[in-house]
Specification:
Elements lengths: L1 E7 L7 H11 L6 E7 L5 H11 L1 E6 L13 E2 L1 H6 L4 E5 L2 E5 L2 H11 L8 E5 L3 H12 L4 E6 L2 H8 L7 E5 L2 H7 L5 E4 L16 H4 L6 E4 L8 H8 L4 E2 L2 H16 L5 H12 L1
Parallel strand pairs: 1-2, 1-3, 4-6, 7-8, 7-10, 8-9, 10-11, 11-12
Antiparallel strand pairs: 3-5, 5-6
Helix pairs in contact: 1-10, 4-5, 4-10, 10-11
Amino acid sequence: MRQLCVIGDPIAHSRSPFLHNTMLRALGLDGEYAYTARRVPGGDTAAFLAAARAEGVVGFNATMPHKEHLVPLMDTLTDEARGYGAVNTVRLRNGRAEGHNTDGEGFLRALREAGLDPAGRTVLLLGAGGAARAAAPKLARAGAERVYVCNRTPERAAQLCAGDPAGRLAPAGMDGETLARLAPRCTLLVNCTSLGMEGTGGQFDDLSFVDALPGGAGVFDLIYSPAETGLLRRARGRGLPAANGLGMLIWQAVLALEFFLDRPLDGPAMARLLREAMT
């Protein structure tokens, strides 16, 4: 049996085993591959990689706190992993570790699936952490005219935007006054922060900036638990098209399995299968 897994700490909450094993069964590969979750503390990234090679693991996904730690441990990096400075998918073959990152493409596929294609839009993006580092450049490359990267620490937003040679990313604060000023210019709002996430306790202090968005603006929250955050509830109360992060989670899994198997899958069919399985 070929071994696949996801590593992280904590990891018990991960839906990756369910998603990947569901796809493997649908592809008739569940007798050949098995996907599990493994708790690996942050300081043990290199030790896990060495053990995985010895055990014959053929691929693994990585979540916090391993994504950045894996970069210097890889023999090769895809353009996505190199560009984001983070690895969330590793393929082990022929003695080599190949690092990839599905965050940005998974995010973009989910946006488009939700009818929120960023092309031609001005985007209000909240946060400048790991999720934003994947989402912001992907939005720019997908044709967004301007992406305002808003963060409570403006210096972090400026650092993220400095890596954009086309100049489509613009840093901004995340205080109420700034959000209220920028929202009327934006036709897509993307939340890349943990505010509203189940179990974190952190919530937006004030959601009035959602009311300042133009009619018809889209809202995408990367959080998928709970399924409806306060942000999404406020947006839907205005009749705005809105989606949570479940689609991104699903598409990340589909793209990761393609990388593990080194062959294309029927992505839309797999995404439908997983969405039905999770609801």
